[in-house]
Design a protein that fits this description.
five-stranded mixed sheet, single chain, alpha/beta, seven-stranded mixed sheet, 12 helices
Length: about 400
């Protein structure tokens, strides 16, 4: 008996060490994270083909890019209903934000390529005579699930499905996608088991960490006929904690080299499915994930007067982190001015600036988080998240539900 106790202690310590190492191994190292390529709201024209010549390879390539800009603007103008007019090269250089090389072949004096052109939305909208504002949905957390050889993977390791969603440009989509990079604790929080867990309480705590209001779970099952041969992808558009399915479709590519193109096409089609579901009212916010907070029976003005007359009831200053969309400098100034105009806010200053993305500011408020939340919603803002960190955006009218019943197919 005297010899068993040390052995038991050693085994217990060894099991604890192995368990700790297993957890660390799941979140350490590895080429797992894939950051989104572009989250701006630029206009995109893809698949522009050019075939030009020049005195040398560099001149031919530059001439090909200019030719792509001209063709892309004509296509964009026709798409926006502006008649399909053209612009001088100098003006195009000022409104084109980037050139995306989809495929190119460079010779000594010839350039053949398929290119994508991104136009700055604010500048291009004025030239086309259209509105630069984009009506977006509430933010949806994207959990891409890939099934291959019977194994499901989300962020446990880097996958081609995750890379496809990182390449997807969301500027023209009505869905506000929140795409995790897969680094840090993402592999522990977002995995295949979590996608099949319907518990609202856990999902609510999880999506609040990412500044989202609901979850989308696009999945793909890859079936390879033989090594290097045809690949079949079965795509499913799923959403919500209940893992509900909107639509399933199948795409096929002739060789393994075409898998990235297969997945890019699947992402674009899934985006169309989600946008159609949003328009028809199927992607309304889940009440279990967004509970209705109790509203005070007294107006905010009466509460403020009560606090002013009784110093003992004066609340302690609360420090909040507020995230907001910042497509340009005007949006930053507007968000700061709107927060400073809320009664009880003593300071509001941007601490993390990301033009074209999501910035954050620190706000000092003499009150509770529920009070400033109600004050912002009364001023036309949509407030997402709970606690000391939340996200604001201008509220957009939600589409009315379709009179049809049943799930979308």
């Amino acid at each position: 008996m005297r010899h068993r106790l040390p052995i038991a202690l050693v085994l217990t310590a060894l099991a604890a060490a192995l368990g700790t190492r297993g957890v660390l191994a799941q979140i350490e190292g590895g080429d797992r994270g894939v950051a989104a390529v572009d989250s701006s709201n630029d206009f995109e024209v893809a698949g522009v083909r050019v075939d030009v010549s020049g005195p040398d390879a560099e001149a031919a390539r530059l001439a090909g890019w200019r030719e792509a800009q001209r063709k892309a603007y004509v296509l964009l103008s026709q798409r926006m209903g502006a008649g399909g007019g053209s612009l001088p090269d100098g003006t195009l250089d000022s409104i084109v934000s980037s050139i995306v090389v989809e495929n190119e072949q460079i010779g000594p004096s010839r350039y053949v390529a398929r290119l994508g052109v991104l136009f700055d939305r604010a500048r291009t909208a004025g030239l086309l005579g259209v509105s630069g504002a984009v009506a977006r949905s509430s933010p949806f957390l994207v959990v891409p699930v890939q099934w291959s050889t019977g194994v499901g993977t989300v962020f446990e390791q880097r996958t081609v499905w995750q890379e496809a969603w990182a390449r997807f440009r969301t500027g023209s989509s009505a869905i506000d996608y929140v795409r995790p990079t897969g680094t840090g604790p993402d592999s522990l929080l977002l995995n295949v088991g979590q996608t099949e867990r319907p518990d609202r309480g856990w999902w609510r705590a999880l999506i609040d960490q990412y500044g989202a209001s609901d979850v989308l779970m696009p999945s793909v099952r890859l079936y390879r006929q033989w090594p290097g041969g045809p690949v079949v992808g079965v795509f499913e558009a799923r959403y919500g904690p209940d893992h509900r399915m909107l639509q399933r479709f199948t795409l096929r590519v002739g060789t393994s080299a075409g898998v990235p193109a297969l997945l890019d096409a699947g992402v674009r089609r899934l985006d169309d499915v989600y946008q159609r579901a949003l328009r028809e009212g199927y992607l309304g916010l889940d009440p279990g994930l967004n509970p209705i907070m109790p509203v005070s029976e007294k107006p905010l003005e009466e509460v403020a007067d009560l606090l002013a007359t009784d110093p003992a009831l004066t609340p302690v200053a609360l420090t909040l982190t507020v995230q907001y969309d910042s497509p340009d400098v005007g949006a930053v100034t507007g968000a700061e001015t709107a927060l400073r105009g809320v009664p009880g806010v003593t300071s509001a200053a941007t601490t993390s600036l990301a033009l074209g993305g999501v910035s954050s500011m620190n706000v000092s408020y003499a009150g509770t988080a529920e009070a400033i939340r109600a004050a912002l919603e009364a001023r036309g803002w949509q407030v997402i998240g709970n606690g000391a960190t939340f996200r604001i955006r201008r509220a957009a009218p939600m589409p009315s539900p379709s009179p049809r019943t049943g799930a979308a197919t």
